[in-house]
Design goal:
The chain is α+β, with helices and mostly antiparallel strands. The protein has 13 helices and 7 strands. It starts with a helix and ends with a helix. It binds iron/sulfur cluster.
Length: 342
């Protein structure tokens, strides 16, 4: 019954999204990875650009990683990009069509594997992400977030899935979860399955499941220096296994306790590049927020003449401002460039 109502609503109201125009497993895979932790409207232009540059797995496997990363620049969670490229290179032209094969690939978990199988291969699987889980908790009227209840939801959704249209069933629940049944807002009177929902009978459906308590976000202070030699700026590549892995940035780092901004930047530049800089010019402050911390960046500028002593462990490049376009940079570095331009 739920499935019937849901699919009837979906066939009339489904969102028109570029990855819904295809059943190609490569394209479904890329869209699903891009959509992790990222809103649909943000993903659309990235997906379009990606598909025009890397229309199939072979094109992606043959591409240079810096170019691939440039296409991901701004989407965040950069390990997703690395995993995609590594997987493309290992796969050849055949995309796996079983759960056991998919789950072994880097960056593909149970949700992604099952969603690819349902949408691209019409297999009877339900990929349960936070959206689908939330809808399931509400339909069953479950409050307590526990492994036991999450499993109940999973089994429930598998049991009610329309076996002839598994992909549509998954996508209909996704659309419902992002329209009428959001984490912080519900529109039960418009919902196509309201007659089957227990949470809607309560005074406050948003309490199903109980909302997480928000933890305060920690702050970090860092000092960064745009070091230039003639008309070229120094950028360093972040280690692949760290946050923002593979992206390029201006040198700098954390301000230690009791250390001044200037002392921190002088020490960081020495540690990272072996360059000794004196009296860098203070440009100003940039604030940026990541998903789990905030950062305040004190920005400095310094021209250097003798770069013979430069010693850097990671990759580095001296580039013109225009040449920066070729490199993927973290968002905070663009804010620094904006500040510098002012
Ligand atoms: S009736 Fe309300 S709470 Fe229940 S699934 Fe629909 S929108 Fe969500």
């Amino acid at each position: 019954m739920i499935s019937k109502q849901l699919l009837a609503w979906y066939s009339l109201n489904k969102r028109s999204l570029p990855w819904r125009e295809t059943k190609n497993p490569y394209k479904i895979w890329i869209s699903e990875i891009m959509l992790q932790q990222t809103q649909v409207k943000t993903v659309i232009p990235f997906y379009r650009k990606w598909m025009s540059s890397f229309p199939d797995i072979k094109a992606l496997a043959n591409a240079n990683y810096d170019d691939v990363l440039k296409h991901w620049e701004g989407l965040g969670y950069y390990s997703r990009c690395k995993n995609i490229h590594t997987t493309a290179k290992s796969l050849g032209e055949d995309f796996p069509d079983t759960f056991n094969e998919l789950i072994k690939l880097p960056g593909i978990g149970e949700y992604t594997a099952k969603t690819i199988l349902a949408i691209a291969y019409n297999k009877q699987e339900v990929g349960v992400d936070t959206n689908l889980e939330r809808v399931g908790f509400r339909l069953l009227g479950l409050k307590k977030k526990s492994k036991f209840n999450s499993n109940r939801v999973k089994k429930f959704l598998e049991a009610i899935q329309d076996k002839s249209k598994p992909g549509d069933f998954n996508q209909a629940l996704m659309d419902l979860g992002s329209s009428f049944c959001q984490a912080k807002a519900v529109h039960c009177s418009l919902c196509p399955i309201t007659s089957e929902c227990r949470a809607t009978l309560s005074e406050d459906p948003l309490q199903f499941p109980e909302p997480k308590k928000n933890k305060p976000i920690p702050s970090v202070n860092v000092s960064v220096c745009i070091v230039y030699h003639n008309d070229r700026l120094l950028i360093l590549q972040r280690p692949q296994n760290k946050m923002l892995g593979g992206l390029w940035e201006f040198p700098g780092g954390k301000i230690e306790l009791g250390e001044s901004k200037e002392a921190a930047v002088i020490r960081e530049i020495k540690e990272e590049t072996n360059l000794s800089i004196l009296s860098p010019e203070y440009i100003g402050e940039v604030k940026h927020q990541y998903s789990h911390f905030k950062v305040t960046i004190s920005l400095f500028l310094k021209s250097v003449s003798n770069v013979k002593t430069l010693k850097i462990k990671e990759n580095y490049v001296w580039t013109t401002i225009k040449g920066l376009d070729k490199f993927a940079l973290p968002k905070a570095n663009y804010k620094m460039l904006e500040l510098l331009n002012k």
